[in-house]
Design goal:
By secondary structure, this protein is of the alpha/beta class. The protein contains twelve helices and 13 strands. Bound molecules: (2R)-2,3-dihydroxypropanoic acid.
């Protein structure tokens, strides 16, 4: 690629490997000091940018596109892209990239950890020990076995099927619901059911769908009421697929025994949020893909997406 012909802006701090890979090839505008970039700085860079290395911390909509006359590609360093209006980008000739595949195992591991925690209360057990109560009084009620129980996965894509394989190691039966039945579900040893049947029969319900207008708020009061009393709920997709007030009510009433969430609505969740007043919840701060290996792989795939798009080539992972 012709040296420094293009300007690439990063919407926040880039992984060092990505910075090193781009810095000699393009005019790189990167907020390497971390923290939030001032809006004026963001807008000034946007006016010159041929590409955005996105860390998902802004909304790519008509308003943004109007301030980006040279923009050719937004490469998001994440698999999810609900902050990007893809149709608007395409209408402006802006291509969109993301990072599927490279994060599957790490996201599945954290999801499996949350599933186990919802049954075995590992985080609560640690808090019990840390508060000096070991041996002084009973901990936090009896926990639940995974073996022989049913896990219902809503959204059986690559991540969902990697979670299913882990749950099967714990001798769980796995059912799933998607818009369309998977052709390989017999090979995966998972059973396709309607969403209502999944909610009614699963001991653990795990959500792994993408956030879009049809999934927004889909886990609402009616959905929680359809779940088995005492079921556990795990969300590793996006907080927006859940009605937070309805989740709070279902946990408070005991309709749900426990929730383990890596994503919330809002994000970041304020420390005084009512969800955090509950005893029957574990929340991690959207860290499912957050290992150094996977974050480096996501960053490098983002670099490859940018370089391919700037040269008018096929992107390794393009959102079409
Ligand atoms: C993703 O890649 O979408 C993860 O949720 C991290 O943002």
């Amino acid at each position: 690629m012709e040296n420094k012909k293009y300007t690439v802006m990063a919407s926040g701090k880039m992984r060092q490997c990505a910075y090193d890979a781009l810095k000699d090839k393009v005019n790189l505008l990167s907020w390497q000091q971390g923290g939030r970039m001032p809006q004026e700085q963001f807008d000034a860079w946007l006016a010159q940018a041929d590409a955005i290395f996105s860390i998902s911390n802004f909304k790519a909509n008509e308003e943004l596109l109007a301030k980006a006359p040279k923009l050719k590609v937004i490469a998001q360093s994440a698999v999810g892209y609900d902050n990007i209006d893809v149709a608007a980008c395409h209408a402006h000739g802006v291509r969109v990239g993301n990072t599927p595949g490279v994060l599957v195992d790490d996201v599945a591991d954290l999801s499996y950890a949350l599933l186990i925690d919802s049954a075995r209360r590992i985080v609560k057990a640690h808090a019990h020990v840390a508060s000096g109560l070991w041996g002084q009084r009973k901990p936090f009620g009896v926990t639940t076995a995974l073996a022989g129980k049913t896990l219902g996965i809503i959204g059986m894509g690559d991540i969902g099927s990697a979670i299913a394989k882990r749950a099967q190691v714990s001798k769980m039966k796995v059912v799933y619901h998607n818009r369309h039945q998977r052709a390989d579900d017999a090979a995966l040893n998972v059973t396709y059911v309607s969403q209502d049947e999944l909610l009614a029969t699963s001991d653990f319900v795990l959500v792994a769908v993408t956030l879009n207008p049809s999934t927004k708020g889909m886990l609402n009061a009616a959905a929680f009421a359809k779940m088995k009393p005492g079921a556990c709920f795990i969300n590793i997709s996006r907080g927006g697929v859940v009605d937070t007030d309805a989740l709070y009510a279902a946990l408070k009433s005991g309709q749900l025994a426990y929730a383990a969430l890596d994503v919330t609505d809002p994000e970041p969740l304020p420390g005084d949020h009512k969800l955090l007043t509950l005893d029957n919840i574990t929340i991690t701060p959207h860290i499912a893909s957050y290992t150094s290996e996977t974050r480096d792989a996501m960053a490098m795939l983002t670099v490859d997406n940018i370089l391919a798009a700037l040269q008018g080539q096929e992107m390794p992972a393009e959102v079409k």
